[in-house]
Amino acid sequence: STGVPSDLTPAPASQALFDRASAVLPGGVNSPVRAFRAVGGTPRFTASASGPWLTDADGVRRVDLIGSWGPMILGHGHPAVREAVVAAAEKGFSFGTPSEGEVLLAEELVARVEPLEKVRLVSSGTEATMSAIRLARGFTGRPVVVKFAGCYHGHVDALLASAGSGLATFALPDTPGVTPESAAETLVLPFNDVPALEQAFAVHGDRIACVITEAAAGNMGVVPPAPGWTAALLRETRRAGALLISDEVMTGFRLSRAGWFGLEGRQRVDLGDGAGEQALAPDLFTFGKVMGGGFPVAAFGGRADVMAHLAPAGPVYQAGTLSGNPVASAAGLATLQHCTDEVYARVDAVAATIRDAASAALAAEGVPHTLGVAGSMFSVFFTDVDVVDYDTARTQDAGAFAAFFHAMLDAGVHLPPSCYESWFCSASHDDDAVNVVLEALPVAARAAAA
Ligand code: PLP
């Protein structure tokens, strides 16, 4: 494949906006993946969105499979969420005192996820993971954080790190601006690799504060935990006196009422620690995206005895001017209240239809690919290698994806502009929207094969 973007649909208004944006915003965007660097061409500026549709500045309407990178599980502009936002805004925008909305949202989270006893609301997933790590370090009195290559937990300095030279050696900064010191207490291991995990714990176990993992990975494409992986994380952390932080910013309240935990966590397993059969319950969770319904709300929480170490109850400092913001909390609560069993069933069905059709279309054109699936999250890997971790995810043909992406865009479907991202469906994807996707896929598969 040439990987040359086709850009058949003219986008003069988006181009003009991108030119203006580039004069005042680095790279023309406020978050890098929006800039189309991985696929080439001009990012489409959204003028408005409704249900499953994005309308760009040139008036072109497309089916949205980005879903604001996760939050829009009900589709854009859900009437009940809009009403909740307006009603909250009429009472004020931000108080700086406690208010009922944040209590209601916290109660909803705790009711949905059994091991979640206490939560702290924050404003972004990055804040949630950063704060959860600080709490884990404060609680255990230990410095080391274990993360997995290809898992993204936001732009926390200590987590913008890649593996050092050996499995049990410390990490190196992944970007300028992160000091070697910030990465020096981070261990980066391959995802789904139990022997590497055991080796790291054998060498460093008594200095490890926590393991942070994506419950099911969605930021190297979708890579679910292999059978036994989550149990191994729990077993190793328990044995060493470290905490397990399950990052459900992307999966939380999307894959089920209780996120990935609701799918896998309720399994009862014997970890061999003498405690008998137990749920696969992490010590801490992080959430964001769906729980804010498109507004800046996120959370971390878990065991009450751990959360008791958080200020003002305990000594570990954490704070935020806009934490528990009443308008954003109302949006999150209304979104979760409308995430019913029917909603999850519809999202599951839409995702299954689209991923099966994508695979069939690519197979018909002989394009090497594999699907990564975790509940209703999925991605298409442009490789025929079995993808289990970041190294295998990186065997993809990015050029084939770029051609596929632009053909989809021309045919009225906005995919995430990178082959390392999940495709996000919503309950608002009705048959009209799904049919647009189904008609686009064979055309795009031909482009990917070219
Ligand atoms: N954790 C995961 C698993 C994510 O997918 C993301 C964002 O994509 C984050 C954390 C960071 O969240 P935010 O972008 O809200 O800071």
TrEMBL record:
Protein name: Glutamate-1-semialdehyde 2,1-aminomutase
Pfam families referenced in this protein's UniProt entry, alphabetically: Aminotran_3 (PF00202)
Subunit structure: Homodimer.
Species in which this protein is naturally found: Quadrisphaera granulorum
PANTHER family (UniProt xref): GLUTAMATE-1-SEMIALDEHYDE 2,1-AMINOMUTASE, GLUTAMATE-1-SEMIALDEHYDE 2,1-AMINOMUTASE 1, CHLOROPLASTIC-RELATED
Matching SUPFAM superfamilies: PLP-dependent transferases
Subcellular location: Cytoplasm
Keywords from the named record: Cytoplasm, Isomerase, Porphyrin biosynthesis, Pyridoxal phosphate
Keyword Hydrolase set for record: no
